[in-house]
Amino acid sequence: MADTTAQANIGVVGLAVMGSNLARNLASREGNRVAVYNRTWERTEGVVEAFPDAEFIPARTMEEFAASLKKPRAAIIMVKAGRPTDAVIEELTRVFEPGDIIVDGGNALFTDTIRREKAVRETGINFVGAGISGGEEGALKGPSIMPGGSAEAWETLGPIFRSIAAIAEGEPCVTHVGTDGAGHFVKMIHNGIEYADMQLIAEAYDLIRRGTGKSPAEIAEIFAEWNKGELESYLIEITAEVLRQVDAETGKPLVDVILDQAGAKGTGAWTVQTALDLGIPVSGIAEAVFARSLSSKPAQRAAASNLPGPAEEWTVDDPEGFIEDVRQALYASKIVAYSQGFDEIVAGAEQYGWDIKKGEIAKIWRGGCIIRAQFLNRITEAYEDDPGLVALLTAPYFRRALTEAEPAWRRVVIAAVQGGIPSPAFSSSLAYYDGLRADRLPAALVQGQRDFFGAHTYRRVDKEGTFHTLWSGDRSEVAATDTH
Ligand code: NBP
Q1: Which end of the chain is least crowded, N or C, by CB within 10 Å?
Q2: Res. 475: pLDDT tops 80
Q3: 18 Cβ inside 6 Å of ligand 1
Q4: Is 239 touching ligand 1 by the criterion CB < 6 Å?
Q5: Per-residue pLDDT tens for 332-372?
Q6: What are the backbone dihedrals phi and psi of residue 252, each rounded to the nearest 5 degrees, phi first?
Q7: Which residues, in sequence order, are CB contacts of 416 under 8 Å at separation 6+?
Q8: In the predicted model, is pLDDT for residue 5 greater than 70?
Q9: Using omega within 30 degrees of 0 as the cis cutoff, is the peptide bond preceding 72 cis?
């Protein structure tokens, strides 16, 4: 294909809010020249006119777009996930050549990315699924980028992505995550952890408000204070901002005017669905997804609203002590949520054959993305100290943190139960912690039940083999049979 006009080293297809911001970010970095294409020309024209300094190279057709790109061509697709992505991939494969690179920067399901990579690879073109986190602002100023795909594609894309990624402690928040769907898989887990983190913060706020009677503005100050310590993170920071906000119309705290029905775009549900398939208990993330679902059932909530709760009005005796307990419970539950998320990364990497460096993932989440936090450095250190760590929460730093928080964590869950305050993420995280550290679990009884009704067999603690008991008839005559 003729490329006599080729000048751009990178192209962006799809110029809605994410695509145009990413294109502007790319154009603002030295060494980049950006070609842009959008299905509807008016949108392209609008973006080019609005940002003349970016010196975009606009294209009216895909052929023009391909001709404006230097070889190997590289284009980032930022269109609506799903069929639009497939449509654009089809058009690009028509005008691109072997060795060129198509990047899907949208929020694709990782199994779609695996499918697309396989299909595109057959044409000789590289396909890269890149998770991009940080919303509109991240796209413009520096996102956290989680690219999958081939090592060959990474050679071209690495310097470009490094030029636009967020910088955390001097390092760009991007790394080659692994082949095919690895990048979108890790982005999915990022979003799942984000759901858990947000739900935990919301529960902390609710407990403090209902337990101490403090106003949202007063609780905002508590979060601002917490943001100076080990909980320091973007989500804690914006929580303080949200709680401070006053509704211009009514003068009430805005949080009291917002309808309490949480929405979701689906990536949390994907994380949980995938975890179920992989057999990984991500209970903190699952409870967060379910809590949003429960909130969005107004008819059921109305019907249940007069069911009984605790007889007495619940308040705490020592508000300051309780607030500190909630802080510790939040930190402990957050450690559980991240530990579970990393368990899912390990299981996914094993299932799909990805060599994912866990410490690197924690590093690239330190800036640009929604779960950015100092805390992630501790995760990187834990995996650097012990790459084979079997459960993140057992690393020495987290073990110490959990040991310190454990009594407060229990007090908070007890208080929540007594007060009738729903705290599904706090309590399920504590249940997970207790389950993991238990010497014996009632799973033994479950195995007995399974063997009783379905002859599913069981293993014994005192010898090798699988066994089935003849349960029927006189229970005293049951016999164990070694089925080997
Ligand atoms: P949207 O998801 O709203 O998609 C709009 C873009 O898709 C427009 O450029 C539109 O072109 C194009 N498009 C559609 Br719709 N159907 C098309 C088709 N059949 N062929 C070609 N183009 C088509 O844009 P966005 O909010 O900027 O998000 C872009 C991607 O980034 C999505 O995958 C999203 O999930 C992901 N993402 C978004 C955020 C965020 O905070 N918004 C964060 C992280 C990732 P048109 O102008 O011709 O209609």
Answers
A1: C
A2: no
A3: yes
A4: no
A5: 999 999 999 999 999 999 999 999 999 999 999 999 999 99
A6: -85, 165
A7: 203, 207, 422, 423, 426, 427
A8: no
A9: yes
